[in-house]
């Protein structure tokens, strides 16, 4: 049985910073260096919660996971393959469904909280 000792309070929990970078062939502009602070992953490794930050740049994305995000800092534009685009600012909350293909463009250094569910293949 789980107790309050099993809870993760994101603002009080220490998580290691993990640097990331999109594969070079996916980058279309800038130098989108990224950092992830993953605070929680369930035992199945399908559910994850944490923070992510990124420097300005643009790269191709293909989501296999469902992701809820709240943009905390910065400005981004999401581009779909049909030519659509969505500008996001701090406070915006959104869900990216699995199967989305497009490009993520970070205009100014950004930070978001994420909740990811990765279905079994």
What does this structure look like?
InterPro entries: RmlC-like_jellyroll, RmlC_Cupin_sf, UGlyAH_Cupin_dom. This is Transcriptional regulator. It holds the Pfam family Cupin_3. The model has no long low-confidence stretch (mean pLDDT 97). Strands 1, 2, 3, 4, 5, 6, 7, 8 and 9 form a nine-stranded antiparallel β-sheet that branches. The protein has a single domain, classed as Jelly Rolls. The chain is 0% helix and 58% strand. It is built from no helices and nine strands. With 121 residues, the protein is mainly β. The chain is globular.
Short description:
With 121 residues, this protein is mainly β.
Class based on secondary structure composition and strand pairing: mainly beta
Helix-strand topology string: EEEEEEEEE
Task: Give the tally of structural domains.
Answer: 1
Number of helices: 0
- Assign an overall shape: globular
Poorly predicted segments: none
Work out the number of β strands. 9
Amino- and carboxy-terminal Cα gap: 30 Å
Name the average pLDDT: 97
Main sheet specs: 9 strands, antiparallel
Measured on Cα atoms, how large is the radius of gyration? 15 Å
Beta-strand content bin: over 45%
SSE blueprint and pairings:
Elements: E1 17-20, E2 27-30, E3 34-41, E4 47-54, E5 57-62, E6 66-80, E7 85-88, E8 93-96, E9 101-117
Antiparallel strand pairs: 1-3, 2-5, 3-4, 4-9, 5-9, 6-7, 6-8, 6-9
